[in-house]
Design a protein that fits this description.
The complex is a heterodimer of chains A (240) and B (219). Chain A is α/β, with parallel strands linked by helices and 240 residues long. Chain A contains nine helices and ten strands. Chain B has a single domain, classed as MetI-like (MetI-like fold). The chains are: A alpha/beta (240), B mainly alpha (219). The A-B interface holds A 48, 50, 73-81, 83, 85-91, 100-101, 104-105, 133, 135, 146, 149-150, 153, 159 and B 116, 118-119, 121-129, 132, 136-137, 140-141, 144, 218-219.
Chain lengths: 240, 219
């Protein structure tokens, strides 16, 4: 479970997040949407402290992530992250990308880690790419490997930072399908996305951010049919 | 004008032995310079203000003053200050190492910072600690940027090492000069020394090129 209280983030003089309060129960799938520059990615990155919050607290399963003495590496093992630009380790093969952290951090044997990696690659449909370097993969394939890499740590929470924004249009579906297959399997998911149809289909809940504020927090069927705020209405008119 | 290589043929082995001296200088200086450079890079990337300030100032001074001045300062200044009569060899290695450390630190820093920031974030998000991510993820990728530049720095060192002949070390240039003075023949021995420098540089350039090709495999 994720619990955010009075979270703010300031870059220089620019306030990116303003007093965000939020709880995400275990297993829920949340889509974060909003205009660009509204603070969606920053909010997501505060959840594993890749971004240092300026004020407020973030609790992950009762552990205060924002505490100065928080064992970040331990908490992060339970929080997978999938990036817009994949960030696969470019000097390692697909298989090595998947087994690196489980062996080094979780202490799995190489054999255990490889068996698990193969299962995961099967799941994302890339078992045949095991010994290939990332540079030889298409964008969609890279992102599916990145998802498998995150899953290899068996996280309780998965954060997606615009996972399809850097993809060619014909590759968006294969990635979204993989993400859909993970939803409602017990893993908590927070997805920053511009894919409205996908958000509506997969999410239990929509968070609408504008100018750093959490403007709406609604079920998708309600939000997309009857957004309460003017800002959400204006946004939806532009993107739908 | 005629060139008369015949008269210096017996002295050619003597001149060429100087290449070994020159290589020893360049090799040892880049070796010590590398560790000094690595240390300076870690200081620059440490995020500690005082460390970064010191490393930046060091780099700025050593890159901003002539190597020859640094050499004289150490060779003639150290005996005056400490009473220790430093040998030409010690002064040469010390100066070149201190100097190349400044250049190497910039090479390593640039190599590390050229690695996409996302690589570090991806490692951190998997629960990998910062030092471990540096070692396993960032440095192996930075090597690709660093190694060819390091060979280039070695080439520079090799050429700059001709400066030690002014404090009397019998390197390639100095030996050519000795023969020149002996035989009253300047052009030929210096030409041989110049050619030898050039051959050494060509060999190193060839190594640099092949390193680059091999390191580009995962691209």
């Amino acid at each position: 479970m994720i619990k955010i209280q009075h979270l703010s983030k300031i870059f220089g003089t620019h306030q990116v997040l303003r007093d965000i309060n939020l709880q995400v129960p275990k297993g829920q799938v949340v889509a974060v949407i909003g205009p660009s520059g509204s603070g969606k990615s920053t909010l997501l990155r505060c959840l594993n402290r890749l971004e240092e919050p300026s004020a407020g607290t973030v609790k992950i399963n009762g552990t205060l992530l924002t505490a100065a003495n928080c064992k970040l590496t331990q908490v992060r093992q339970k929080i997978g992250m999938v990036f817009q630009h994949f960030h696969l380790f470019s000097h390692k093969t697909v298989l090595e990308n998947l087994v690196y952290a489980p062996i080094k951090i979780k202490g799995l044997s190489r054999q255990e880690a490889e068996i698990q990696a193969k299962t995961l690659l099967d799941r994302v449909g890339l078992a045949d790419k095991m010994h290939v370097y990332p540079s030889k993969l298409s964008g969609g394939q890279k992102q599916r490997v990145a998802i498998a890499r995150a899953l290899a740590m068996e996280p309780e929470i998965l954060l997606f930072d615009e996972p399809t924004s850097a993809l060619d249009p014909e590759m968006v579906k294969e990635v979204l399908d993989v993400i859909k297959s993970l939803a409602h399997t017990g893993i908590t998911m927070v997805i920053v996305t511009h894919e409205m149809r996908f958000a509506r289909e997969v999410a239990d809940r929509i968070l609408f951010l504008a100018e750093g504020q959490l403007v709406e927090d609604e079920k998708p069927e309600v939000f997309f049919k009857k957004p309460a705020s003017e800002r959400a209405k204006a946004f939806l008119e532009k993107v739908l | 004008m005629t060139l008369d290589f015949g008269r210096i043929v017996p002295s050619i082995p003597f001149i060429l032995q100087g290449a070994l001296v020159t290589l020893k200088y360049a090799g040892l200086s880049i070796f010590f310079g590398f560790f000094l450079g690595l240390l300076l890079t870690l200081m620059k990337l440490s995020g500690l203000k005082a460390m970064k300030w010191f490393a930046d100032a060091y780099t700025s001074v050593f890159r901003g003053t002539p190597l020859l001045v640094q050499l004289y300062l150490i060779y003639q200044g150290i005996p005056e200050l400490t009473g220790y009569s430093i040998t030409a060899f010690e002064a040469g290695i010390l100066t070149f190492s201190l100097n190349s450390g400044a250049y190497v630190s910039e090479i390593i820093r640039a190599g590390v910072q050229a690695v996409d920031k996302g690589q570090m974030e991806a490692a951190l998000s998997l629960g990998v600690s910062y030092p471990l991510a540096m070692k396993d993820i960032i440095f192996p990728q930075a090597v690709k940027n660093i190694l060819p530049a390091l060979v280039n720095e070695t080439i520079n060192m090799l050429k700059e090492s001709a400066l030690i002949s002014v404090i009397g070390e019998s390197d390639l240039l100095r030996r050519a000069n000795i023969i020149a003075a002996e035989k009253y023949l300047y052009f030929e021995p210096l030409l041989i020394a110049g050619a030898m420098y050039y051959v050494l540089v060509l060999i190193l350039s060839w190594i640099a090129k092949h390193l680059e090709i091999r390191l580009a495999r995962s691209d």
